Amino acid sequence: MTTIMSPAEELKFATHFLHQLASQPIQYQLNFEPPLANCHATLPPASRPFPLREPDDVATSPAANEVEINIKPLKGGQAFTIRAARLEPIGDIKSRIATEAGIPIAAQRLVYNGKGLVDTKTLLDYEIVSGATIHLLKKPVAASQEKHEEAPTDTAHSRSKATHTSSTSPTDVFKIKGRNPAFWKGLRELTGQHFGPEHAGVVFDEFVKSYHGLCGPLTVPERDALKKAESASV
């Protein structure tokens, strides 16, 4: 016996059947790999969004990304001006102030618009523009800590001796590892394998910025050593 359905019944049956198919979960084999075209790389969250590419009509010279800021000590001392990149961490700014004003990093507190500046954030995070004034407060610091900061740190022997005679903090481990060009070369190869030439450079640059934040405040020699190792990995 043949059952004949009306057009309305056929439409209802087809709709119900397709709905049942669509609700079934998709099961893949254990060795399934999605096509690269369907993979979307997720970048680590940055402190604030920024354009990946400058417009063609905007100057891209290094001077366009630098600002001149005035450092004004609140209790005595002569005000002075330093030039820095907009993406330079506050910790690096403190290292330069220590060289210029002779105030240890641990004794510095930087204030802009009534807000204390955090070492791991950048000038761009606080919207500090050229000509802005940052106030410098000197905090009391233990004599032993001040002496430790003033000790020479630019020789491999002193770094090696400090590493073996005292417990190594996580920030020291990051600083030591970051001076090895092989570390950055391996990272470039890893990002190239997983993200391809189109996104590998962006992922690598984001990692470098995050890595500098993990290192904490850097002295000028330490910052230069990191940048030299990163450049040597190309």
TrEMBL record:
<dbReference type="GO" id="GO:0006620">
    <property type="term" value="P:post-translational protein targeting to endoplasmic reticulum membrane"/>
</dbReference>
<feature type="region of interest" description="Disordered">
    <location>
        <begin position="143"/>
        <end position="174"/>
    </location>
</feature>
<dbReference type="InterPro" id="IPR019956">
    <property type="entry name" value="Ubiquitin_dom"/>
</dbReference>
<feature type="domain" description="Ubiquitin-like">
    <location>
        <begin position="67"/>
        <end position="143"/>
    </location>
</feature>
<dbReference type="InterPro" id="IPR047154">
    <property type="entry name" value="UBL4A-like"/>
</dbReference>
<dbReference type="GO" id="GO:0071818">
    <property type="term" value="C:BAT3 complex"/>
</dbReference>
<dbReference type="InterPro" id="IPR029071">
    <property type="entry name" value="Ubiquitin-like_domsf"/>
</dbReference>
<keyword id="KW-0963">Cytoplasm</keyword>
<dbReference type="Pfam" id="PF00240">
    <property type="entry name" value="ubiquitin"/>
</dbReference>
<dbReference type="GO" id="GO:0051087">
    <property type="term" value="F:protein-folding chaperone binding"/>
</dbReference>
<dbReference type="InterPro" id="IPR000626">
    <property type="entry name" value="Ubiquitin-like_dom"/>
</dbReference>
<protein>
    <recommendedName>
        <fullName>Ubiquitin-like domain-containing protein</fullName>
    </recommendedName>
</protein>
<dbReference type="GO" id="GO:0071816">
    <property type="term" value="P:tail-anchored membrane protein insertion into ER membrane"/>
</dbReference>
